[in-house]
Design brief:
alpha/beta; 2 domains; 8-stranded parallel β-barrel; 7-stranded antiparallel sheet; about 25% helix
């Protein structure tokens, strides 16, 4: 009997309405987002009760599901807010609640009984016994611990009900922690990572100080710049789509609710194109086209790895020895419309007359144009787009779509670690 190949859901992050719209426009099947409380990301704008209703309405109008995070570990004095939070989620029409705490799960069954329950990676699910226990408690989906190997996910799939989903992170930042549970931020700066307020001290540059030699700093290792011993690489699994599908992963999750709308657009678009291309020709040795792989380096990123999917993090410890993100491309403008050979745009970064720009649109391979005859909103000739968010035009024979992103690669000397 041939194994049925199930097309995975592509699940994208949405830190605010702009990022949600980017995820929807560039091919997400579902988005996950947070309210102003009970979510694991306090940094993004997130969604008020009223905004949540608008977000769900927008997503559903485009056939996209919405999963609401409710995965913090709440304290006693916060529980009284939980019923109204859950009731608003039901009223908004969210498709699922992402939960890690057993008490919150009980509240959800009482106040949102008809809403799907997804068990967060924060619960640290590493075996099928735990997954089955959550299934018996009413869960439809488990988000596995990031520490699982591909072979362990396959075993999990083989030992849970067919109608239970497995969701895995396939792209984005990783924590030096167990399933995102970490106390470093809490201890150092009193910001609790388990309540959405992580300050990311694992990304800081550490050196040793010997007690009797104050002021003398010694690198932990041989790198003259010190060492980022807790700073993990980013995960990127876009070259391993056949293996992930074969293992039984039903939802591919992109990390990044705190990332920019541009990041969400690029990464979502790349995975959308890769998944769709695989299903046009589902061979075991499938690899995405090179231009799709290149997209992974057109956002801010740390050096990539495959996380725990294939190996324990022993070789080079999967540590990024750079403190921040590689940044090699910038968004120059967003296209508002194109009419009669003229592109009407809104500026995001400064560029100059005659510069070559790469055009990015949903579901298409990027292409290059040259910005000629730049003019400001008054129709006056300009040599550059020097004013933030200014409206401008330029001549372009190639038709451009509204909301298309125009970007430019930095010169080698301009590339930075941020």
């Amino acid at each position: 009997m041939n194994k049925v190949i199930r097309k995975p859901e592509l699940l994208a992050p949405a830190g605010d309405m702009e990022r949600l719209e980017a995820a929807v426009r560039y091919g997400a099947d579902a988005v996950y987002l947070g309210g102003t409380v009970f979510g694991m990301r306090a940094g993004p704008a997130n969604f008020t009760d009223e905004e949540l209703h608008k977000a769900v309405e927008y997503a559903h109008s485009h056939g996209v599901k919405v999963y609401l995070t409710c995965n913090v570990l709440p304290r006693n004095d916060e529980l009284e807010q939980l019923p109204s939070f859950l009731q608003n989620a039901v009223s908004a029409g969210v498709d699922a609640l992402i939960i890690s705490d057993l008490g919150v799960l009980e509240y959800a069954k009482k106040y949102a009984p008809d809403t799907e329950i997804h068990i967060s990676t924060q619960s640290g699910i590493v075996n099928y016994a735990a997954a089955n226990a959550f299934y018996n408690l009413g869960a439809k989906r488990v988000v596995t611990a990031r520490e699982l190997k591909m072979s362990e996910i396959r075993s999990l799939r083989d030992n849970i009900p067919d109608d239970m989903d497995i969701e895995c992170f396939v792209h984005g930042a990783m924590c030096v922690s167990f399933s995102g549970r970490c106390l470093i931020s809490n201890y150092l700066v009193n910001r609790d990572a388990n309540r959405g307020e992580c300050a990311q001290p694992c990304r800081w540059n550490y050196r040793l100080v010997e007690e009797k030699r104050p002021g003398q700093y010694f690198p932990v290792g041989e790198d003259e710049g010190g060492t980022y011993i807790l700073n993990s690489k980013d995960m990127c699994m876009i070259e391993h789509i056949p293996e992930m599908i074969d293992a039984g992963i039903t939802s591919f999750k992109i990390e990044g609710r705190a990332k920019s709308a541009y990041y969400v657009a690029v990464v979502t678009n790349a995975y959308r194109m890769a998944i769709d291309a695989y299903f046009e020709n589902p061979t075991p040795d499938f690899k995405p086209e090179q231009w799709i792989l290149d997209e992974m380096h057109k956002v801010s990123y740390r050096d990539y790895c495959t996380g725990f999917f294939y190996d324990d993090p022993s070789d080079n410890a999967q540590i990024s020895y750079k403190g921040g993100y590689n940044r090699e491309w910038d968004v120059m403008a967003v296209v508002e419309k194109w009419e009669n050979g003229v592109a009407y745009c809104s500026q995001r970064n400064r560029f100059f007359e005659g510069d070559e720009l790469e055009c990015m649109a949903a579901g298409k391979k990027p292409f290059t144009i040259k910005a000629l005859n730049l003019r400001n909103e008054e129709g006056e000739a300009i040599d550059s787009t020097r004013h933030p968010m200014m409206n401008f035009t330029f001549e372009c024979e190639t038709p451009l779509e509204g909301q298309m992103l125009l970007r430019k690669q930095r010169e080698e000397k301009e590339r930075v670690i941020i």
